[in-house]
Specification:
626 residues; alpha/beta; Substrate Binding Domain Of Dnak, Chain:A, Domain 2; Rossmann fold; 3 domains; six-stranded parallel beta sheet; 11% strand; binds FE(4)-NI(1)-S(5) CLUSTER with Oxygen; binds iron/sulfur cluster
């Protein structure tokens, strides 16, 4: 039985009652104070990049003081939005490359997937024969770090794309160079008195997006796999019911597995468990929120407490001893909220410092020691719990997660040729698609946003897609919405059309495949590239689309740009502050097609959004004559 959005909302309301008892604030109240939103901001027509402004464009004032028109202002805002996201993902990737440099046979971080490291090293033309694996790891760490600031050439990862895609990028002048350079270039272009030509601003938006997806994020994903293992299908559970009232509950939240992996490692130590018992608990439960949750769920089966707009709920259970965060998507609200309970809000990164938190700085060099300090702090906080405030909604679903590209290839191999010949390629998946057993695939990604009923769009879209024999791959908070609803339980095959149901049975998979965190959307880029190569088609010809129905962050815009630039039509449920400019809107929803063979569709009506995706998939099938 699935968990419905109504049931999840009822659980949230019950938690808000606990909040009311202790005077806690919550996003549900703050959103009321912030609506209606500023119309100028919403349309992207406000400019405050120089102190002659702020200037806002109206029919009576069609130009800023410098003479910039609305298209320049909206375009600059869009590029800045992209640069913020690309910088963020890529800096996360850089941290992983740095952690790889700290890997040591007797250290906190090991090389858990040496075969993958060797595979990447060969791709990069690095000598691997007879090398000590840690020596190789350190050389690869240095090389990867230099991808961020190299003076010449383009991203090393671009070679993974089909030749046709690489040619498109080259001809459009959007091949990303050094990762940091594209962010700097974007911020240079958007300085007062630089670019105001829509076409130039959108080209750089695509290029900066590509420096994320085919640069920084790909570094993050690939070297996380090397360090922590390439995900394989693994069973876990999702929703707040994974927290255990009798145990010390530590919630990891944020993005970088360098921290969360170490917390899991330490909490597993029998000595720590004994310590928790000494302090009156039965044991230690780690659960996760947001992308860091996806990371440890995929590799360790650590349960997922919830996604973005559920982060306050974790504290509202009254049973959270510590919420341990690193970077990105962390509500500053957790500071004051944790003060209403016994919860320790532990920040760990110089990048994300917040008031009302306990700061325990974490770094790759001091990982084990700091992780121990954090886990101990949580254990020692168990005694401070106020039992009458504890309420954990009895709500969770089973989920099978961990579908890296490697795992998808392995799992689907043999589906179309009765398990006889293993191809080691995506050909069986191509066969399922060409024969029409599966009509196509949708990549469901992104956040929650109070502008959309939280999780509702993710879940309803996925249900309709799988009922129409469209397989879904999901990441980020979208993946967690699916898991909470029960769509990552293999039993969800019963919600599928006959074709997809058969594939789920033969391959023993759920119809919605968890591909990881948001940096792992780079996995999806590798998957479509393989599909294109194995089918002999261009990426843009594949019956595949991307969708972020509830997106909210700058990172999501950066992602959208690289997904589109990779040739995948992308559907958004929230407008990226561009409605104020007809020219920018036209470029994003149509003009970019001339460069990269794909574009955006923005549709705020969720029912129409899903129908448009299905329509696009069928159009692509018709064009192929399949
Ligand atoms: O990078 S989906 S709310 S957690 S931004 Fe954030 Fe959005 Fe969640 Fe991960 Ni992605
Ligand atoms: Fe106004 Fe131009 Fe300055 Fe922007 S750059 S604030 S439009 S004067």
């Amino acid at each position: 039985k699935m968990t419905t959005v109504e049931e999840m909302e009822a659980a949230t309301n019950r938690l808000l009652e606990t909040g009311a008892k202790v005077g806690a604030d919550a996003w549900q109240f703050r959103v009321k104070n912030q609506t209606p939103h500023c119309k100028f901001g919403e349309q992207g027509v406000c400019c405050r990049i120089c102190s002659m402004g702020p200037c806002r464009i109206t029919p009576k004032a069609p130009r800023g003081i410098c003479g910039c028109d609305v298209h320049g202002i909206v375009g600059r805002n869009y590029l800045k939005f992209t640069a913020g996201g690309a910088a963020t993902h890529s800096d996360h990737g850089r941290e992983i490359c740095n952690t790889l440099g700290h890997a040591a046979p007797d250290g906190a971080y090991k090389v858990k997937d040496p075969a993958k490291l060797i595979r990447i090293a060969k791709e990069w033309g690095v000598e691997t024969e007879g090398r000590d694996i840690y020596d190789l790891a350190h050389e690869m760490s240095e090389l990867a770090l230099s991808e961020y600031g190299k003076n010449h050439g383009v991203s090393r990862w671009l070679k993974r794309a089909p030749q046709h895609t690489q040619d498109l990028w080259h001809n459009a002048g959007i091949e990303p160079r050094a990762i940091d350079r594209e962010v700097s270039c974007a911020l240079h272009m958007t300085h007062m008195g630089c670019s105001s030509k829509p076409e130039a601003l959108i080209r750089q938006s695509l290029r900066n997006g590509l420096s994320d997806g085919w640069g920084g994020s790909m570094c993050g994903t690939e070297f996380s796999d090397v360090l922590f293992g390439t995900p394989k299908p693994i069973d876990t559970e999702a929703n707040l019911g994974v927290m255990v009232a009798e145990n010390v509950n530590i919630v990891v939240h944020g993005h970088d597995p360098s921290l969360s992996e170490m917390i899991c490692e330490v909490a597993d130590d029998p000595e720590m468990i004994a310590y928790a018992k000494e302090m009156g608990a039965k044991g230690i439960t780690i659960s996760g929120v947001c992308c860091t949750s996806n990371e440890v769920a995929m590799r360790r089966g650590i349960p997922m407490a919830g996604n973005f707009l559920q982060q306050e709920n974790v504290v509202l259970t009254g049973a959270c001893e510590a919420i341990v965060v690193d970077v990105q998507c962390i509500f500053p609200a957790l500071g004051p909220l944790s003060k209403c309970f016994h919860t320790k809000f532990i920040t760990t990164s110089p990048i994300a410092q917040m008031p009302d938190s306990d700061y325990i700085e974490f770094s790759a060099g001091t990982a084990l020691e700091k992780a121990k300090e954090i886990v101990k702090t949580a254990i020692e906080n168990f005694k401070n719990r106020k039992p009458d405030l504890v309420y954990i909604p009895d709500m969770k679903q089973k989920a099978t997660v961990g579908y890296s590209v490697e795992a998808i290839v392995k799992t689907l191999d043999g589906v179309t040729n009765s398990q006889v010949d293993k191809t080691g390629t995506t050909k069986p998946l191509v066969d399922c698609i060409t024969s029409g057993v599966i009509r196509g695939a949708v990549a469901m990604v992104g956040c929650n946003n109070p502008k959309i009923r939280p999780d509702y769009a993710h879940i309803e879209l996925m249900k309709k897609l799988i009922a129409n024999d469209i397989i879904v791959v999901a990441s980020g908070c979208s993946a967690q919405a699916a898991a909470k609803a029960g769509l990552m339980d293999k039993a969800a095959k019963d919600l599928c059309g006959a074709g997809l149901k058969r594939v789920c049975e033969l391959a023993d998979i759920p119809p919605v495949l968890h591909m990881g965190s948001c940096v792992d959307i780079s996995r999806m880029m590798v998957l479509v590239s393989e599909l294109a190569k194995d089918s002999g088609l261009n990426i843009s010809q594949l019956p595949v689309v991307g969708c972020a129905p509830e997106w909210m962050s700058e990172k999501a815009v950066s992602i959208g740009n690289y997904v589109v630039a990779t040739g995948i039509d992308t559907f958004l449920g929230v407008d990226p502050y561009v409605s104020g400019s007809t020219e920018i809107t036209e470029l994003l929803t149509s003009g970019v097609k001339d460069w990269v063979e794909a574009s955006y569709t923005v549709e705020k009506d969720i029912d129409k959004l899903v129908d448009k995706m299905i329509e696009r998939i069928e159009e692509k099938r018709t064009a192929l004559g399949i």
